[in-house]
């Protein structure tokens, strides 16, 4: 059923080994390098020149064709514009989740299906589905479920939590059952030395080596405001825009006994409310409210039948899963965590898991702050 596969080649070791495994399995494989940012725009920088050279090396080594496609317009409209709008209104967005939903599992999927005539796509993500790493359990009349990979430390299902069924049903994850160390070992043994020890990409690529606060100034107008201590009401400093700060971040204000951390950003007054000390109880909360959720397969049966879903929560990729209870409300979900977490942040995604499955996610719209202490 699946013979011709297009794989996203990023220039990294994961997609290189994923392509190798597809080739070994007898598929007709074609590589696709995605260019999502215009390097000619002076405000942003993306290191994709070196990545593209590495992608060429990988595909040459594996004897597969490589296509370079541009999704600059799509990335600007669907990801970067949303990112700017949310920063301007005091939220803290997650561009990686948006990029996977709108670019890698939408624009890329449609391009490969319509222009390359492929049967399925593949990526080097550490993720799995109920259809198997190579779609060996594919069923045309069933929905697909997003599952965690073997390597829980590298698990990337968090970033795929907004992906739609259409693309996920036809996506292979060849390294789903491998540890990162194994992936690097395979790359070395196959002579893919140019990428075998390459560092994993982190952060937003187009910022380059610039600090985020300097980069974002090129797109959002500076609007000064005050840092206000929520305990005393005292003004403890000034800032140059709420878009430069996120909840839990240290403010680096001088001449104070204890370091200050961002507690909440007030879009109406342009003030940032801060607390003294990283362990301040106001930073630690266990109740949040979201917008409408995106369920990857379907709304969980437990939530539909019993009105309460017992599952696990995370809002940051690297943090441990936390037990929680979830109920529907008129605008989305109400999520009650079993323990307090530091710096729950509006604009981030609440990603939900149960029995090794990523159920989906919802954008956090409000935090019920612990102000009784």
* Mean pLDDT over the full residue set: 93
What Rg is obtained from the alpha carbons, in whole angstroms?
22 Å
Q: Which strands sit side by side, in order, in the main sheet?
A: 12-16-15-14-17-18
Query: What is the strand tally?
Result: 18
Ranges where pLDDT stays below 50 over 5 or more residues in a row are none
| Class computed from helices, strands and strand pairing | alpha+beta
- Total of helices: 9
Comma- or semicolon-separated keywords:
single chain; 373 residues; alpha+beta; 6-stranded antiparallel barrel; 5-stranded parallel β-sheet; globular; ATP-binding; MnmA-like
Task: Kindly describe this structure.
The model has no long low-confidence stretch (mean pLDDT 93). A hairpin with a 7-residue loop joins strand 14 and strand 15. Helix 1 crosses helix 6 (180-189) and helix 3 packs antiparallel against helix 4. It is globular and about 70 Å long. It starts with a strand and ends in a 6-residue tail after the last strand. The protein is an alpha+beta fold and 373 residues long. It has helices spanning 13-24, 48-62, 72-88, 95-115, 165-168, 180-189, 193-196, 212-216, 301-306; strands spanning 4-8, 28-35, 66-70, 120-122, 128-129, 146-147, 171-172, 225-229, 235-239, 260-266, 271-276, 284-290, 294-295, 309-314, 322-328, 333-342, 349-354, 357-367. The strands form three sheets. The chain has a six-stranded antiparallel barrel with strand order 12-16-15-14-17-18. Strands 3-2-1-4-7 form a five-stranded parallel sheet, with helices on both faces. It has nine helices and 18 strands.
């Amino acid at each position: 059923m699946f013979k011709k596969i297009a794989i996203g080649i990023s220039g990294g070791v994961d997609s290189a080994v994923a392509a190798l495994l597809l080739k070994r399995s007898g598929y007709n494989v074609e590589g696709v390098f995605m260019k999502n940012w215009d390097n000619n725009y002076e405000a942003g920088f993306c290191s994709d020149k070196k990545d593209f050279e590495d992608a060429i090396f990988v595909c040459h080594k594996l004897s597969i064709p490589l296509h370079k496609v541009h999704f600059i317009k799509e990335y600007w409209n669907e990801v970067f514009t949303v990112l700017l709008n949310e920063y301007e209104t005091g939220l803290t967005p997650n561009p990686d989740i948006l990029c996977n939903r709108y670019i890698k599992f939408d624009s890329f999927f449609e391009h490969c299906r319509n222009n390359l005539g492929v049967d399925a796509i593949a990526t080097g993500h550490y993720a799995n589905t109920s259809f198997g790493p190579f779609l060996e359990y594919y069923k045309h009349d069933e929905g697909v479920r997003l599952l965690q990979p073997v390597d829980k430390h590298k698990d990337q299902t968090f970033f795929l939590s907004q992906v739609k069924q259409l693309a996920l049903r036809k996506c292979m994850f060849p390294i789903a059952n491998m540890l990162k160390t194994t992936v690097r070992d395979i790359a070395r043994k196959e002579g893919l030395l140019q990428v075998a020890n390459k560092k994993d990409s982190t952060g937003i690529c187009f910022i380059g080596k610039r600090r985020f606060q300097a980069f974002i100034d090129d797109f959002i107008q500076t609007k000064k405001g005050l840092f206000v201590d929520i305990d005393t009401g005292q003004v403890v400093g000034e800032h140059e825009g709420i878009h430069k700060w996120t909840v839990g971040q240290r403010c680096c204000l001088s001449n104070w006994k204890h370091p200050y951390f961002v507690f909440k950003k007030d879009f109406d007054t342009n003030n940032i409310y801060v607390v003294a000390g990283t362990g301040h109880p106001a930073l630690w909360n266990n109740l949040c409210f979201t917008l409408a959720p995106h369920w990857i397969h379907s709304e969980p049966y437990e939530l539909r039948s019993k009105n309460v879903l017992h599952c696990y929560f995370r809002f940051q990729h690297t943090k441990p899963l936390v037990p929680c209870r979830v109920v529907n409300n008129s605008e989305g979900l109400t999520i009650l965590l079993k323990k307090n977490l530091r710096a729950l942040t509006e604009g981030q995604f609440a990603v939900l898991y149960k029995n090794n499955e990523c159920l989906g996610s919802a954008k956090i719209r409000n935090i019920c702050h612990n102000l009784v202490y």
